[in-house]
Amino acid sequence: MTTQQLHEQILLKKSFLCVGLDPDLTKIPPHLLETEDPIFEFNKAIIDATHDLTVGYKPNTAFFEAYGIKGWISLQKTINYINENFPEMFTIADAKRGDIGNTSSMYAKAFFEDLNFDSVTVAPYMGKDSVEPFLAFENKHTIMLALTSNEGAFDFQTLNINGKELYKQVLETSKTWKNSHNLMYVVGATKAEYFTEIRKIVPDSFLLVPGIGAQGGSLSEVCKYGMNDKVGLLVNSARAIIYASNGTDFAEKAREEALKVQQEMEEILSLRFQV
Amino acid sequence: MTTQQLHEQILLKKSFLCVGLDPDLTKIPPHLLETEDPIFEFNKAIIDATHDLTVGYKPNTAFFEAYGIKGWISLQKTINYINENFPEMFTIADAKRGDIGNTSSMYAKAFFEDLNFDSVTVAPYMGKDSVEPFLAFENKHTIMLALTSNEGAFDFQTLNINGKELYKQVLETSKTWKNSHNLMYVVGATKAEYFTEIRKIVPDSFLLVPGIGAQGGSLSEVCKYGMNDKVGLLVNSARAIIYASNGTDFAEKAREEALKVQQEMEEILSLRFQV
């Protein structure tokens, strides 16, 4: 999927919502636990109930790996289900990978080829040769951590390096890497006031924005400072949507929550775009 | 496994070698490709041929994930094989994970509980709450990236923060985290001259040292500057050992290479310890 196609999907659906799939057996509706693959059944129901309101899904690999081989099978089934039934969907493997070059090549192969995700999240700490193997895949997208939504973001990401915070240096340096046009960035919604500065460095890049919903970030603030003329935002919500209920009505309640966000997005989009 | 037990194993085996298991179907001996699970067969043969010369094995998760569900099955079989047959072995899931708190908890569960590794490598970029969920597991070890062996290490890790390089700040800050006694650190062998400074910050911690062998680091230099009075080093070698031959003699040749390293280690240890 190209960024132009993603932009078109956003205008078509009047939504830049991405639903995070963080399936946790201790939180999903108990009646699903009797099925053969509760994690997949949960994801499938959430996807079926929300796909017209969202432009993307972001399975978080940790929530599959925690269940070992069974979990990896659920992940494979989930991405296959999306690709087969909703090929217009932008898919994100939220995996936070990154290693020396030959190892990153294997991770890229895992997520872009074997599982056929459109994108994967990566960590920047190991630098250029840990990220470029991902960037080598054309029409696949590498979403690098810049400024995250958690408290620990202030441990290192905002440290001052010659008058500039580390996350800004990460953004600037990454622009010099080969195939940097395939980069997107993670910027937490809990830090909306930082978007102005970030847009000075990466005006055209798509930003994946976690942290609205359960983590407390504001959608309107994020859009005010972070939106560009291609929208340029994918706002993720996981817990607030997928765990809106843990009864038999969970999918319906998830849809209600997703609809609220989509409607807020439609209103925001209508002020700047022909939607 | 406790660090004291690891120290004892090192003196007993006269080795602080860890063998990296990076199974790549394009590199392993062609005759293994006819078996049902070539990756596991390869790992098993390497382990059988080297276990008396090493104190640890470090499967690199990327090389399993690249093969999808089959790869995850091979990973499960590999760690089970080690735990069942060589319970004295220190096992490292080289996974470079790290995410917001509830996600890191799931990764910790995946590697410490489901797969039952002794340790896992993590990335520091997301700070305290991305690492502490791993540290909460007693007698499990969290090996955090400090200064890596690759070229990209100079992109961010060595940037100057108020007169101090980022990797030093990472080391110092991590010491303030809850259960920081469960931390170890990755420090690349290709940067032996940095060990003196690192030992000033973390004198007692075990350091996992990649980069000898294929990446060109010197064992004697690493030991000169990095060894402490508990040895405090686990030196990893992967490609130079596991791909010493791709003929039917691959395990034998792997043993020869491991033996060379072990003998060099024995000589170094004999100068400082009763081995």
Q: Give the structural class of chain A.
A: alpha/beta
- CATH class label of chain A: Alpha Beta
* Number of separate structural domains of chain A: 1
Looking across the biggest beta sheet of chain A, what order are the strands in? Answer: 1-2-3-4-5-8-9-10
* CATH fold title of chain A: TIM Barrel
CATH architectural arrangement of chain A: Alpha-Beta Barrel
CATH superfamily of chain A: Aldolase class I
What string gives the helices and strands of chain A in order? HEHEHHEHEHEHEEHEHEHEHH
What is the CA–CA distance across the termini of chain A? 21 Å
Measured as a percent range, the helix fraction of chain A is 40-55%
Overview of the structural elements:
Chain A is α/β, with parallel strands linked by helices and 275 residues long. Chain A has a single domain, classed as Alpha-Beta Barrel (TIM Barrel), CATH 3.20.20. In chain A, the strands form two sheets. Chain A has an eight-stranded parallel β-barrel, surrounded by seven helices. In chain A, a hairpin with a 2-residue loop joins strand 6 and strand 7. In chain A, helix 2 runs parallel beside helix 4, helix 2 packs parallel to helix 12 and helix 5 packs parallel to helix 6.
Which short descriptors sum up this protein?
homodimer; two-stranded antiparallel ribbon; TIM Barrel; alpha/beta; 275 residues; eight-stranded parallel barrel; 10 strands
